[in-house]
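As a warm-up, study this chain.
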Amino acid sequence: MRRSSRLDRIPPYMFAELERKVRIKRAAGVDVISLGIGDPDTPTFAEIVRSMQGAVANPSTHRYPSNRGRQEFRQAVAAFYARRFGVELNPETEVMAAIGAKECIFNLNLAFLDPGDAALASDPGYPVYTGGPLLAGGEAVLLPLNPDRGFAPDLEAVGHVDRERARLMFLNYPNNPTGATVPEGLFEEVVEFAHRHEILAVHDNAYSETTYDGYVAPSFLQTPGAKAVGVEVFSLSKGYNMTGWRCAAIVGNAEAIEHYWHLKSNVDSGNFEAVQLAGAAALAPEVDVEKAAMNEIYRRRRDLVCDALAEAGVEVAPPKGTIYIWAPIPAGFDSSAAYCEYVLEQAAVVISPGGAYGASGEGYFRISLTTPDERLLEAVERIRRL
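Now compare it with the structure written out below.
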């Protein structure tokens, strides 16, 4: 059976491979602890679930949804952005529902890239930033995130040819996988660069609601001029324990969202409106208390892991955002993949190799904090014994 040649351009998705390895180990009776995937281990907040239960019983949600998103959801997103970020959005033209951030980011590649075009992609970064352009027939030009620059890309280092063929730029702060927060002045630099080179800046805002130590993450759209050159993809997956719900929104530049809608209306029929109504409930101010309690759990886990790693001689700076710890691999291993394979085989712990997030991630590994405290500590102790 002949497959499309475009599949030859990308490797199997990293997290699918991790899940496959875990299944094999567990089928053999091995007690595997997975710290690989950032999938919250605690339930979706009760108020969101109650809203979903009521919405499912509402016959108005049983028909085809609107591709643009149900009005209540778009209005809730606009109200949230005004309250949380001080950003005014027109819910009719500057907000659109998406079936999760991954779907949204991938489809932006289809909507904006032609063969020969390029997307500037944070490196290390979410694999869809690089896989999406390839599947769309374009290319990904990596933007190395250097620790010495606070994990900010050096936009002036992008070559002239790549600047001219770039149509998209993917950024993400608080950053997955490094946990870095946005360096001062970077968003302003991005706006100027995107305007000068006619690039659509795409900020993947998946972790703005998961922060610690008093840090409050900004929206890219708070930056003067950002709405003229960019969009932001806001996901409810991590901050609201809703990974399985596939609920997100793309907000910002109205023309870009219109192009996105043009594509989406020919690709899918939108996401279930009961999910959108539950998403609207999630964005209400009343849910902020549960969100803060969830962040306190992650903060405690962050400190447990960082302290345990320090005892093992691995110094890491506790991140102020995201649900990840980004740490250097020990000496004696040829690659981050080799180290993570060793940890899986010898300690039955799954961690993510930094190289899987891009060339600049080589030499690091990522630990997800989405595991109960006692299992998280056991996993780190197993790693420490190695």
